[in-house]
Design goal:
The chain has 401 residues and is of the alpha+beta class. The protein has helices at 2-12, 14-19, 27-42, 47-54, 61-68, 77-84, 87-99, 101-111, 115-126, 137-145, 151-166, 190-196, 212-225, 257-262, 297-305, 309-322, 340-352, 366-378, 389-394, and strands at 73-74, 135-136, 176-177, 235-239, 255-256, 266-267, 279-283, 292-295, 338-339. β7 (279-283) and β8 form a beta hairpin. It binds calcium ion (CA).
């Protein structure tokens, strides 16, 4: 008797009943989708795709949660770099370079982007096709398009995604990716897909999920399109002389290679810098005790793919390693992991002492690093802008241990 009662209760439990039915969309979302259908129609999306695929999109609360989420801790450069350029990724990258040598060589010749860079992007974006993201792209983009924060941008990307479905490259069901709309082997947003994706295997479809030839050729076409310089590297690790003026470091300060040469910058082998008519910027992501890099035009191209210096350094170094190079001569120096509150304390401490770091926002960016560099200079320290444990202790962000 008891068990029958429990069974009955379980059957009638509202939670269980709900779990079997699709969640209903909030009324504002349903209204928004009606407006999106008009927009899609105005922008030339077929009635079939609008009625079948756009009309059935679902609101995903999790997407908004992820969009609002700010990382609680800033990841240090050393941690970021070590997690992305791993031994496993280097070994697999080398094996895949060999396995797909013919295809990669053909693409490299045609687009002017060396194979190791294509494999490096592939490795960093999806771990060589290991994870594409499983979110339904139309649901994610419609949810973000109906949210006020970046509505125009995501409405545009939603329309672009519908165009891709309309052209027959993929069905809405198979169009999966990241919560923010990035898709396939190389995590292209729909706008990048429409402009740069290529049907390289000739089956009539641009398929960045199921066709490696399409995905790698599309990556090469994108890089060429955003300015990849055929005969150039991304940059290289260099060695610096004693008493190097670190205020010259930073992406904003491009100088001719000859000038870096006369400042005493050398290749890590000790050899002179190449005698080329090029400009470069010098980066010291973990200060004067860590590696120094001279970065060239192609570094800026990599940053057009993803606007983070750490990402671009990881792509460049991973590409070198996949191509057979050894590890860095100097390893990145680890720095304390800081919470947003701690970064705000640091910014306030710098501001209070007259080294303007801007409105405290908890984000460790170039403005804060420049303020640290000025602070270091005033104390006759090496002005490399690195947030070391010493600096954090001096400025009262960390206690003495
Ligand atoms: Ca194809």
């Amino acid at each position: 008797m008891l068990s029958r009662t429990l069974l009955l209760a379980a059957v009638l439990s509202p939670a269980l009943v709900l779990a079997d039915e699709p969640a209903s969309n909030p009324p504002e979302f349903a209204e928004c989708v009606v407006r999106l259908k008009d927009t899609a129609s105005e922008r030339g999306i077929s009635a079939a795709v609008i009625e079948r695929d756009l009309a059935s999109v679902n609101y995903v609360a999790r997407v908004i949660e992820l969009d609002r989420k700010q990382p609680e801790f800033s990841e240090s450069f050393a941690t970021y770099f070590e997690r992305r350029v791993t031994e496993d990724r280097i070994v697999r990258g080398r094996a895949l370079l060999k396995e797909h040598q013919q295809l990669l060589n053909r693409i490299s010749r045609e687009f002017g982007v060396p194979a190791q860079y294509l494999v490096a992007f592939w490795g960093l974006e999806t771990n060589f096709g290991g994870f594409f993201g499983k979110m339904p792209i139309l649901d994610s983009l419609a949810t973000l398009a109906c949210d006020p924060r970046r509505s125009d941008y995501f409405t545009g990307e939603l329309i672009n995604a519908l165009k891709i479905i309309d052209e027959g490259s993929i069905t809405a069901e198979k169009m999966q990716g990241s919560w923010a709309g990035a898709m396939g082997h190389t995590q292209f947003m729909p706008s990048v897909f429409l402009r740069y994706a290529i049907d390289y295997d000739g089956d009539g479809k641009r398929d960045l999920w199921g066709s490696l030839p399409d995905a790698l050729a599309s990556a090469a076409n994108f890089l060429r399109g955003i300015g990849w310089q055929k005969e150039q590297r991304w940059g290289r690790e260099v060695s610096l002389p004693k008493n190097f003026p670190f205020e010259k470091a930073g992406l904003a300060n491009s100088l001719p290679l000859q000038q870096w040469q006369s400042l005493g910058v050398r290749q890590t082998s000790g050899a002179k810098l190449p005698d080329a008519d090029m400009t470069a910027a010098l980066l010291v992501p973990t200060g004067h005790q860590g590696p120094a890099f001279l970065v060239y035009d192609n570094f800026h191209v990599i940053m057009r793919w993803n606007r983070a210096e750490a990402y671009a350094l990881a792509v460049g170094h991973l590409a070198d390693r996949i191509n057979g190079a050894g590890s860095l001569k100097r390893q990145p120096v680890q720095a304390p992991r800081l919470s947003r509150d701690q970064v705000m304390t640091l910014q306030t401490a710098l501001n209070d002492r007259g080294f303007t770091a801007g409105e405290p926002d908890g984000v460790l960016g170039p403005g804060t690093r420049a303020a640290i560099s000025r602070y270091q200079k005033s104390r006759q320290q090496v002005a490399d802008g690195f947030v070391s444990k010493t600096i954090l202790t001096e400025l009262g962000v960390l206690g003495d241990d």
